[in-house]
Amino acid sequence: MRRRRLRAGLAAVALATAALTAASPPLETVAAASRPAAAPDWSVAVVDSTTARYTPSTIGGWSYPVGLYLYGQYLTYKRTHDPRYLTYIKSYVDRFVKSDGSIDQSFNSLDSMQAGRLLVILHHETGQDRYRKAAKKIRDRLDTYPRTSDGGFWHADSSSRAHQLWSDGVYMVNPFLVEYGREFGDSAYANDEASRQLYVYGSHLQVANGLLRHAYDESRTASWADPQTGLAPEHWCRAVGWYAMAITDVLDALPADHPRRPQLIGILRKLAAGLEKYQDPATGRWFQVMDKGGRSDNWTETSCSSMFTYALSRGAQQGYLDRHYADVARRGYEGVLAKLSVGTDGRTNLTDISIGTNVGDYAYYAARTRATNDFHGLGAFLIMNEQLRGD
Known about the structure:
Elements: H1 2-23, H2 27-34, H3 42-53, H4 64-80, H5 83-93, H6 116-126, H7 129-141, E1 164-166, H8 169-184, H9 187-205, E2 215-217, H10 237-253, H11 261-278, E3 286-287, E4 300-301, H12 302-318, H13 325-337, E5 340-342, E6 348-350, E7 353-354, H14 362-366, E8 370-371, H15 375-388
Antiparallel strand pairs: 1-2, 3-4, 5-6, 7-8
């Protein structure tokens, strides 16, 4: 009798155990459910969305906004090794560079030189000499390009830009220059010239609060130029962003013993302190007119916020800046991600990007169109995201 009861009890335990096992998911399923979902690969999402919207033929002409975006696409390619991304860049560049290396560009403005980075990239990736020849046209143009009395490249070789240094301009030529020097054995010239340009521009444009004014006119004749200082009246955020990215990229290229390295680090540290001061505490982003965030018609702008986030993160990582700037960058990164969404078509949308902008007054900057998926913002986003995504 006792044996029958024992057998019945064991059978009941077995049935209960089987029922429990059937009702419970495997341990690996439980572990997977407890892990946080992987963050989306926003670089891939932005590149796939943009290349779906435009072919290499319809994305636009030879220009710095397209060049900036495609440089960001190249950074994504370097990480993912998706061959479509490099093929797309090559198809775009090959619209302008003939098989003999000739390129139908006069390079009479710094803006026209920025996409030259793609020439260096394609030479590095393919070894085709035509890209070296095309890139050399930019390098050779610098030998005759007009300068201020202390050696700064004019923003453009035209009467309307004569004697003017715009903060934007340093990014248009100097990252290209140091990359050209590294790729083609011309680093002695390239590093000296690029670091000189950043120093000359910084010496004119950076003011006591650490930020840079949009532009400087040596002749003091431009309508926006202060008659005493030659400076533009405002701190337009993307102009400062261009400078922040350029100085970071050039520092990455300079040898540790380069004589201008301490000067550039000093400029960057002063700028970083200004960026931390004027970061919007509510959003982590930065304002279109940087030091006037309290005005009701001012707004936080996405491209410059990406640029500052990149520069602060990279600067902290490389030891140019104190490590606490990585936290400032993290707040900026979260602020920019808040401007990115996915539409009903499955494609990304990045909002509140200022369209291209000349030098002006406060009202002019505040009234600029706030675009969605403008290449200034997409390119800056990709550069930022590739720096911070694994942080």
